[in-house]
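Worked example

This section walks through a single chain of length 423. The input is the sequence exactly as stored; nothing has been trimmed or padded.
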Amino acid sequence: MEIKAPKGIMDILPPESSKWREVAGKGTALLRSYGYREIMLPVMEYTEVFARGIGQGTDIVQKEMFTFEDKGGRSLTLRPEATAGVARAFVQHHMDKAGLPVKLYYQGPMFRHERPQAGRYRQFRQLGIELIGSPHPSADAEVILVCSEFFSLLGIGTDLVINSVGDAACRPGYIEALKEYLAQNKASLCRDCRRRAVENPLRVLDCKVEGCAGIIAGAPGLEGFLCEACREHYREVIALLEAASVAFRMDGRLVRGLDYYTRTVFEFQDPKAGGQNAIAAGGRYDDLIGELGGKPTPATGFSIGMERVMLAGPRLEPGEDAGIYIMAIGDEARSKAFLAAYELRKAGIRVDLDHLLRSPKAQMREADRGGFALSVIIGEDEMAGGYYTLREMLEGSQERVEESDLVETVIRHLERWMPTRGV
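Given that input, the structure is written out below as C-alpha cells.
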C-alpha cells in the first residue's frame, strides 16, 4: 500500500517552505505595524459555531465542512474559516472588557471538502485580521488598506472589487426582487443555484459556474435597494479609499459566500487567475457576535488565501536567507567547525555543516545546493594558523579571518545580501 497525503492536502517542502515563511513574516510584520495582535485559535469548534455564524443555507455549511462526533456525542467541525471562531473567542473570553476596538490577526490551516484544483485545497492556509468594535467607515477602509498594502509589499498586482450588501433594514427588499428575477430565469441556472434561488438567493450571485454567469450579470444590483444609512456608510468608505489613492471597482452584484456579512464587502482578485480569482476577501459583519450570544458588536475584517498568494508569484528579496556553510577537512577540524557553527547561530545567522564525513568537494556541492552565500573552510592550514578561510560562494573570492573576528566579519558580508534587514 502506498502511503501518501490525503486528497486535496499538500506538503510544502523546502526550499518552497522558506518562501511561505517569508511571505507570512512580511504579512504579520505589516499587521503588527497597524496595531493588530495575534490570536491563536483551535482548529476545531462545536459545529453550531459555524452553522449559526456562517449560515445554514451556505455551501460551506451544507456541503464543505469536515464534521464528526466526539465520544460524548457532540458535533465538532474542523474550521472552514476563522472569523466565526474569532467571534466565539471574543464572546467566551469577554474580550470587550479590555476596551474597544479589539484588533486581532490570525494565521493557520482551514479545512473544506471541495474539489481540489489550482489554488483550492481541502486543507488550505489563511492570514487574516478582525477589527472588532467600530461601526464607522474608517474601520472598513483600514482593513481594505492593510490588505492592499500587503499585496503591494509582495509586488502582486490585484483588482479590488467592492460593494455594499446592506443590512437587515434594506436587504429583504432586494432579496425579494432577486427571487423574482431568478424565478423567471430558473431554467438557465445550474442545479445548485435552483436550490439557492429558493433557500438563499444571494448565494446565486457568488456562483462560479460558467453557465450561470449570464444570469448573474443581468440580475438587479444591490445599490438601488440600500437604505440611506447603508448608502451613506458606503459613500464614506469609498471616499476614504479615494483619499488614500486605493484603486477599486464597484460591483453591485458582489456578495460573499457567508451569511454574516453586512454593508461593506470586498474582494482582491488576481487578474491573471481563472474563475477562482479571489486572492483575498472580507467585509463587515455587525450581527455575527450577537448571533453567537454576545452583546451586539460591529466588526470588520478580511482573510487572505496563502496558496493563491504563492501562485501569484510574490516578489521576495534575493538572499533573504543567505547564511553560511562551514566546511571541515579532517577529524580535528570537525570539532572546531561544530563550535564555530554554534557561535554563529547564537548571533542569529543561518548555519549548516557536514554531518556525513563527506569530502571537501562534496561539502562544497552541499553548500551550493543549500543556497548559502558564504562558506567557512577549516583545514590543516587553518587549524595550525588559528584562522578561518571565508569564501564568497558566487564570486569565489576568499579571505583569511581571525577566529575572534568570525562572527563580526560574517555579519558584515551577509549585510550585502540582506541590506534591509541585516541577518
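What to look for: The two ends are 45 Å apart (CA to CA).
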